[in-house]
């Protein structure tokens, strides 16, 4: 699919990997709607990106709020792409340090945002893309975001790793399910990227994360994620696959 002239929805677009994806999509000629939480600085980011980028406040777990995002995108033209980056962690142990079972509430919250939110964005986005005309044999594509934690969850990441493994699991079945509608689905599983999610860590921890990457021995740049997201949209043969983007890192238990 050619990116120039399409309308794309980018969730989590106010920050980090989503913001970089929105910037690159606009640079390549797409019109973009950023969906992010009410309290995010999505409006300011949309203005900084320019090119008619719009911000619509939405929680990815809400049907009504995400429908409003796609309504706004529809007004700009045919929605052909979704890059879904919204997500967050929430650490718990299976049994906490005082011997109590890990919080079911935290587990549910993290699974809701990362897994249920992904399916919500996928189903609402795919329904919109399905209404567009087929161009060069396809209607559009959805890029989801997992994590290397889907494969090597570290101690404390039980809700996040479970949710991201669910995203990996939905990728092939979604691609098969949507094939008849000429819509592709791929997932990116990032390693360690230099985004605000990591800014809470000390320089020492960030440095050791960077050194743990075999090559290149540094944190990923958000635009390297955006490059892959755009390539997935552009390459018609990429479908049903989760691609690790991680400099060959394999996370240790902690
Ligand atoms: N940065 C990394 O190293 C890394 C590694 C692996 C996976 N990831 C994944 O990549 C994605 C993007 O992460 P990032 O590093 O850019 O983080 P980030 O914190 O910079 O950006 C995430 C954005 O998602 C938004 N968001 C969170 N919950 C939301 C919700 N319910 N509805 C709408 N928006 C919501 C936040 O407001 C934020 O703007 C996440 O899914 C994250 O799990 C990141």
Explain this structure to me?
- The protein is an alpha/beta fold and 254 residues long.
- It has a single domain, classed as Rossmann fold (3-Layer(aba) Sandwich), CATH 3.40.50.
- 42% of the residues lie in helices and 15% in strands.
- It has 8 helices and 7 strands, in the order E-H-E-H-E-H-E-H-E-H-E-H-H-H-E.
- A 7-stranded parallel sheet has the order 3-2-1-4-5-6-7, with helices on both faces.
- Helix 1 (16-27) crosses helix 8, helix 3 runs parallel beside helix 4 (104-129) and helix 4 (104-129) runs parallel beside helix 5.
- It is globular and about 55 Å long.
- Bound molecules: nicotinamide-adenine-dinucleotide.
- Nicotinamide-adenine-dinucleotide is lined by residues 11-12, 14-18, 36-37, 40, 59-61, 85-88, 113, 117, 145, 147, 190, 192-193, 195-198.
- The site of nicotinamide-adenine-dinucleotide (NAD) has 28 residues, from helix 1, helix 4 and helix 6.
């Amino acid at each position: 699919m050619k990116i120039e002239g399409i309308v794309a929805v980018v969730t989590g677009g106010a920050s980090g990997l989503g913001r970089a994806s929105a910037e690159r999509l606009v640079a390549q000629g797409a019109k973009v709607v950023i969906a992010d939480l009410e309290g995010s600085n999505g409006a300011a980011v949309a203005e900084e990106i320019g090119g008619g980028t719009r911000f619509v406040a939405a929680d990815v777990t809400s049907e009504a709020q995400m429908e409003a995002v796609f309504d706004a995108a529809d007004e700009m033209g045919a929605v052909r792409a979704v890059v879904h980056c919204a997500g967050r962690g929430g650490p718990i142990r299976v049994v906490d340090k005082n011997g109590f079972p890990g919080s079911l509430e935290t587990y549910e919250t993290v699974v809701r945002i990362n897994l249920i939110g992904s399916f919500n964005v996928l189903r609402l986005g795919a329904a919109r893309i399905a209404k567009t005309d087929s161009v060069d044999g396809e209607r559009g594509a959805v890029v989801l975001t997992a994590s290397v934690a889907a494969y090597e969850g570290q101690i404390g990441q039980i809700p996040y790793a479970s949710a991201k493994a669910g995203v990996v699991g939905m990728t092939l079945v979604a691609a098969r399910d949507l094939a008849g509608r000429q819509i592709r689905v791929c997932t990116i599983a990032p390693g360690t990227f230099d985004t605000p999610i990591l800014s809470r860590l000390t320089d020492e921890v960030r440095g050791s994360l960077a050194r743990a990457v075999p090559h290149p021995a540094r944190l990923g740049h958000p635009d390297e994620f955006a490059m892959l997201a755009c390539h997935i949209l552009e390459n018609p043969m990429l479908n049903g696959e989760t691609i690790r983007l991680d400099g060959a890192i394999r996370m240790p238990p902690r």
